[in-house]
Every structure is written in structure tokens, then in C-alpha cells.
């Protein structure tokens, strides 16, 4: 105990002394007038005339030591584009790992280079751009200093790479019209760079290499200077789309589909963008994965429709994941996932000074018994202090003779200088709903949280409440009428005395305790204690957990067809083991085993995932999960199988085949998807969805969908 206290005290004393600033911590962009060829060769003279930085420092595995391989970066710009050149020298270039090639590839398995740009220089928001030696592209929007990252955003930009025996080299071209920034003549942006050398698991950063930092924490970034004369950037973008396809059901009835529409995007200023949409394209080109639900609460499916993805982070609100006043899948989709046409809509996104603004309104068409509905959301956030915000939200769902409105306010205090360089966030939110034709017209939801996410000590605490009358009809609620208490503490030492261990993980406690908001009786408890876990320097990980759970059923619960658990209070204990091999290897796997009590019986769950990266053009994975449940009311087994084959010709032409089956739904689903990107921002998709019924031991075709979609981008 004395040793633990001494180590903890030393950690807080020494932490402020760990330098995270490397000089130079500024890089100046070099203005060019002649066009350059984006080919990854970096052969133009202007690349040598520009300022180069090369002072990278290790974050992993040896924090604070100089990078083992030389990395250089230079920045150019002209009236329309930002160019970033990268030289990733490697004395063991033959060991480079580059398997991903498709758009939004998994960067965690490959050598890669990442760029973050804080274009407002507000230490809160930014853009992430990533590539690997294959020239694959990944991008994301950063919000709340890296606490939220929207990986679904697809910006219009490009990158080309070259590999040689000396290493690999990349040339990024990012149009200024893709970014939002303050309309000033002279610009100062935050910028940081990260290189990952996968075969030795080395992670190098230009600035902020402390393990209490992440690249996405733009508040710790360096500075990009030299940009001027770009405030006149404007954009009028037209994106029409066309869809054609056929659908055949089990009765061999064939229906054809033809549809079209489009979006108009206008960059009013470099910081404010207006989107107009007509007959909005909500065609999903990849099916939602089946989820077998062994709980009594609703499942959450992520948004996949293009129109909602770019502005999703603008409408995030501080009530957390389980209670959201705005959930975009409520617009244009029924509860069963059936599409409802969108007549038209408008959206305004941007920043004016210290205020971030988001507004969206869409009108759906009437369909069958569902009337035409208007859905509108307004969001405003104001920057305060160095990294903190306050904000309000209003969400309306209007239909004839019924109005549902949710309005609320939230705040976030965030700093990365506690104890010198530690991260701390404190925040909260409160929202009220109003339903015009309800007997109890109003309801409340609220949340308070504290988060201390750091490398050695990681602690968080949350209190949530949603009363029985809170009704966000344009939002998402996993459960209603509850109060939730959560606390999570993890200790992650890095013992130098064990040479093969990167870090150990101990979790003294982690619990979610729910009570009924009206009666204050327990609803449920989930808690976990981790006596031992570790990550090796080679990238493997292991953890062991002990879980204590409780459920108070106020009515009988049908957990499986024909199997009902009687109402009452249940307490049970479960045990868990997990092991995963290093994901940077061509073949890697994950094994999961969980067993123990389950209500008034027993449940054993095990899962295995195998991934084989055959080469940069082919990647295969297989998943299998089994739940074996023994209850006095009946026994049952749930088997879930899925497999995926990813294929890529080059970073602009790729596809996948995905299949899944479980013996609960007794249905096999196949999805084939091909994506061609002739130019950045333009996409062609070809999709085939096929389902088979397996209830009687044989495969019977149920539904076949063949769909092609073309989205063209015009810039005026």
C-alpha cells in the first residue's frame, strides 16, 4: 500500500516536469503560385524551399525518447488548397505494414501518418486526416478537444503515396473549401502530426507526446502560420444523385425502384455552410447488422445515412449516450426501419466568433397511416474559458394535432493542465420535454459527470436521471423512469521490471446502479472488478473480470420465444476472460469467455474473432458467438455467425461481401457492396442484399435487392 501511495504521489509531482513541447513548435506554410502534381513523389523544388520540421518524439513504447526513424513534414498552399508533404524514412522499409486500402481503413493495423488541424485555433475542434503507405484515406471531425470524434464524416480531399527502399512518402491535398475557419486575412491554425511504425509498435508525435495526451487533443497541438489571403474561399456545390434497382420478395413479386434528388451546399463564409436538400437520398448501401437482444431494453443502431453524418457532432448534447434528445434515425425511418420519403430540408452549420451554430429542419411525406411530419433541431454552443463550453438545444417534432418538443441546456468545463498536464472534464445537462396531447405534458432528464482520463489513473463518475414523463420523440432512450449512478476507476502502471509488459490494468470498481425514479427501488445493477489485466509490448492483451449483477423485474420478461422469467429480484455473479493478439499482424484473433449465474439459472457465452489480412487487396474475417442459457423455465442456445471479405483494387475502387446468421431469427443475410470514387466527393455504389429463411432446415430465398446509386459532385 505504501508503494502504491508513493508511486501515485510521484506521478503527480513528476507529471508537470514531462515536457510536451518540442522546438520548433511552429511550422510555416510556404505560398506557391504554380500548380504541383500530387503524386507522392514530392519532387517539385518548392517542397525543398518550404520549412521542414523533423523533431518527432516517442509516445510509445519509450515515452520522451527521440523517434527511431526520421520523419519530415513541410506545408505548402495556394489560393484553393493546402498541401502537406511527408517523408517517412525507414531503415527497415521491407517490414512496413500496409494492409488497408479502402476509404476509412483501419489505421490501427498499419504503418500510418496522421494530421490534425485546429482551423479555428480554439483548442476544441478540428479535423483528422490519415493515410498509410498504400494511399488509403481516413478522416474524422474532432469535437470537445478529442472527447468526441465523428469518424463517419467524409471530407473532399486526396492523398498520394510512394514507397521506396528508403521508406514511404505522402502528399496530401486538402481544399480550403473542405474546412471551416475564421474569415480573417491572416490565419493561425493549430496543427499536430503523428507517425506509427507498426512492426515495432512505435508511436511518434511532433508535439504533446505525453501518454496523458492524444493526437486528437487539439489544445496540445503546435502552430501553423504563414497562411494569408484565403478568406475569400467560397463554394457552391451541387450533388445530384440517382438510384435504380429491383426488389423481389418470397412470392417472386418484382418491384423496380427509380429515384433521384440532390443536395446543394453553399459555403456562405469560410466558417458557415448552408445545405439544402430535395427528395433526400437516404438509401443505405450497407445493411444494419443483426443484434440478438438478451436484455429488456432497446438496442441502439448507428446512423449510416450520408445527409446526417457531416453535421452529427453539431447536435450532440450533454445527456450522454443512453438518453439523447435528438437521434437522427427517428427522421425518415419508422421504428421497424422502413423508409419514409423526405420531401425537402435545410441545414446550417458553422461558427461565428466563439459561437457554434447548428440548425436543421426536414419535412417527411405522409405514408400509409403516418402523417407528414416536420422535424427541426436547433443547437448553439458558446466557447468559454480556454477549452470549455455552454450551450442550449431545441428539438421539435410537429404533426397534425400533436407537437413534441425537447429543450435543454448543458455545460462542459475541460482542462488539460490539472497537476501540470492532466486531463479533467466536469459537465452537466438538463432537458425538458413537452407533448401537447399527453395527460402529463412535461418531463425532465438531467446528467452530471466528472471525468479524469489519464494514463496511470483513469476515473469517471456520472449521475443520470430521466423521469417517467420525459418523452423525446425525436431522440433515443434506452430506458425510462430511472436514476443511474456510475463510477469507474482504473489503475494502469507500467512496470519496468517486467520487460515484456507495456502496462498492467487493474479495475478496483466499475458499476452502473439504476433505481426507479418514482419508488427509488432498485431497477438493475451491473458492476465489474478487474483483478488483473495487461498489454504486452508486442501488442497482445489479456484481462480477467468478476461481475456482479442484479435485476428487479416488475413484470414477467420474455427473454426468448416461449421462455419467460418470472418477475422478482435477481442477484447473480459472472466471470470473464478476454485475450486478443496484436492487430498489426497479418493474422490476429480475439477470444472472449463469460460464464456464471443468470437470473435464476446459468448462462455461458463465448466468442471468437479471426482476421486474416491476406494482402493489401484482400482481408477476411470470421466471427462466432454462442450463448448457452439454462433456466428453470426453459433452456436455449443462441448461435451467431458472421463473415466478411474486403476487397480493394486501389484506394478508389473497393468492395466487400458480408454474411450473417443466427438461429434465433433463422435468417441468413448477405450483403455485397462495391464503391468506386472517380474523383473525391463523387461516388458510385453497387449493392446486392440477399436474405434466406432457414427455419425448416433448408434455405429459402426471402428477399433480393439489387441497387445502384450514383452521387456526382459539381463545384461552381
CATH hierarchy, class of the largest domain: Mainly Beta
Can you tell me the CATH topology of the largest domain? Immunoglobulin-like
Largest sheet: 24 strands, antiparallel, barrel
pLDDT < 50 runs, ≥5 residues: 1-19
Overall mean pLDDT score? 90
Work out the strand percent.
over 45%
- General form: globular
Radius of gyration: 26 Å
Number of domains: 3
Q: How many beta strands in the DSSP annotation?
A: 45
Please identify the oligomeric state.
single chain
Helicity, as a percent range: under 10%
CATH architecture call of the largest domain: Sandwich
Quote the distance from N terminus to C terminus: 68 Å
Main structural class = mainly beta
Total helix count? 3
Explain what the structure shows.
There is one protein chain. With 716 residues, the protein is mainly beta. The protein has 3 domains: 18-228, Immunoglobulin-like; 298-478, no CATH class; 481-647, no CATH class. The chain is 3% helix and 56% strand. The chain contains 3 helices and 45 strands. The strands form 5 sheets. The chain has a 24-stranded antiparallel beta barrel. A hairpin with a 2-residue loop joins strand 37 and strand 38 (601-615). The radius of gyration is 26 Å and the shape is globular. The protein starts with a helix and ends with a strand. The model is unreliable at 1-19 (pLDDT under 50).
